[in-house]
Amino acid sequence: MKHLIDIMELSVEEIQELIALAEDIMNFPEKYREKCKYKKLATLFFEPSTRTRLSFEAAMMELGGNVLGFSDANSSSSSKGESVADTVAVVGSYADIIAMRHPKEGAPTVATMHSDVPIINAGDGGHNHPTQTLTDLLTISLEKGKLNGLKIGLCGDLKFGRTVHSLAAAMSRYEGTELVLISPDELKLPSYVKNSYIKPNNIKYTQTTNLDEVMGELDVLYMTRVQRERFFNEEDYLRLKDSYILTAEKMRNAKADMTVMHPLPRVNEISTEIDKDKRAAYFRQARNGKYIRMALILKLLGVE
Ligand code: CP
Fold first, then answer.
1. Which residue's alpha carbon is nearest to atom 1 within ligand 1?
2. CB of residue 289 inside a 6 A radius of ligand 1
3. Ligand 1 center to 51 CA (angstroms)
4. Block mean pLDDT (10 aa), the chain, length 304
5. Is the pTM of this model over 0.90?
6. Same structural domain for residues 194 and 274?
7. Residues 101 and 124: beta-carbon distance below 8 Å
8. Residue 51 and residue 46: Cα distance in Å, rounded?
9. Which ligand 1 atom is the nearest neighbour of the CA of 52?
């Protein structure tokens, strides 16, 4: 594996290796403190981020490496019209590995065609977010003790939410997965995700607009934000933004061991009163992101 653009480029076995490595890093961080000494990670973020960029940077620092990059397209020469191709061709001579987020779907794929160093897709428009999915799989594995045989509710903006596209595809390869797709009619999971991953793997799935009706059946509830930045008009966003708000009252109908996840940032979709509920795993999930990104950097750089 040279680059990581789509979670489906990794086999289930490779994902398991990354999860095992991330768990080893969590348990024995001192073993890894100098693994990337003298290596550099460039973070090229053409779109805002808190978790993905900072956890990548923290990951490289904890491996003994250094980081460089930009967090705003306006502070890079893309604001003067430089192409993604030229940007990565140049940055590859300053850094050993590149994590890139871009608002245009496919931009990281273009980057791989012009880069001598590994490119990691850190989120491309409404398309994919493979390192969030690695984070999610590590979190499910840690919280539930397994990845097979789980009923997972994906709730909110399933149309534009790139994290759910990658997660639905990835979970489709685990035996006994059931997916419950909970969204307003306008924000349903795109057909390509169903036709390319869910249906060919014979994964049982249902679609509903009603979270309350299915709450009691779920092992995992994956909440998502309605993606304001992907809407073509503000009126539609305002109408749909509060379609689902998870409250303590709604949680009373959930299983005692249901896991609540969210890629974050959240806006209104999970009431802060749930943060102290032991089923709320979203801050643990954000923390796990650093360890799985450490594992991924080691793998892509070929560090033993
Ligand atoms: N989950 C996620 O991608 O968060 P950021 O946008 O803050 O990186």
1. 263
2. no
3. 5
4. 94 98 98 98 97 98 98 95 97 98 96 97 93 98 98 96 95 98 95 97 97 98 88 82 93 98 95 97 98 98 94
5. yes
6. yes
7. yes
8. 15
9. 8
